[in-house]
Design goal:
The chain is mainly alpha-helical.
């Protein structure tokens, strides 16, 4: 009896990460997964395990070396550097403030999340679909950053730079539109409040733990009345979401003045 338990324990402990991946993604394992990944990447990946890690969310695997958070950290830094390089060359006469703001718009979480969805990353990302809190999180934008990190480790900086330009920046980021884009909805809402003599506050109305992470609910309060609520895993993002909903709800910036 003791010997049987020992064998089973050893068998369980010897399960490789790729085996666990196949259990959750039986249809995407093997050739099918590689085909989907190759379609997104545009090349045949070398170290496939890197990409599987990049496509695995923490809601499935808690261990730091088995989910994509470390690769997300790496990819975030690389993507930011590549965006800075692109802007520096595209706008040779623009000042530092303009370049910094444009880079923020390029690597904005919502923007990256939308790009990731258009690229089809949701189909091959491994995450807990029953976790309701993930519906308010930009996990696919984070996955895209992790994918950039995996490409960097697999192919090097030069090829990553080429891939980011050809697969992310040129087909999905339109500089003329980004120049006009307002991404700081809190500033926009504060500007409206000041102009109209309103008192604007952001209040944390709920804070709870979901799957080991703190989820914040923050309300945008105008003259003592909650206008909108935002939920995210940090207060900054939650308040920005609340501000964005409030801006849309109040119709701020919707009216365009006719030229005289």
């Amino acid at each position: 009896m003791i010997l049987f338990f020992s064998d089973e324990c050893q068998k369980f402990c010897s399960l490789r990460f790729v085996d666990i991946f196949k259990q959750f993604f039986p249809k995407e394992s093997g050739n099918s997964f590689r085909k989907h990944l190759k379609n997104i990447l545009g090349f045949t990946p070398g170290n496939i395990s890197l990409y599987k890690t990049a496509l695995t969310h923490r809601s499935i695997r808690e261990a730091a070396d088995e989910n994509n958070e470390r690769l997300e950290y790496l990819g975030d830094a690389i993507l930011s550097a590549l965006a800075a390089d692109y802007l520096f060359k595209r706008y040779p006469y623009k000042e530092e403030g303009f370049l910094t703001e444009m880079r923020s718009k390029m690597v904005n979480r919502q923007q990256l999340n939308e790009i990731a969805l258009r690229m089809g990353l949701k189909k091959i990302t491994l995450y807990n679909k029953s976790d309701g809190s993930l519906k308010v999180s930009q996990i696919f934008g984070n996955t895209l950053e992790a994918l950039v990190g995996a490409i960097y480790l697999d192919r090097g900086y030069k090829k990553t730079s080429k891939w980011v330009a050809e697969r992310i920046i040129l087909p999905h980021m339109y500089m003329e539109d980004l120049e006009l884009l307002e991404i700081n909805h809190k500033n926009k809402l504060y500007g409206w409040a000041n102009k109209n003599g309103k008192i604007l506050e952001f209040e944390t109305i709920n804070e709870n733990i979901e799957n080991g992470r703190r989820l914040f609910t923050i309300a945008a309060v105008v003259d003592g009345q909650a206008v909108a609520e935002g939920r995210a895993f940090n207060k900054k993002d939650a308040s920005q979401i609340a501000a964005q909903i409030a801006v849309d709800k109040l119709g701020i910036g919707r009216d365009v003045e006719e030229p005289e």
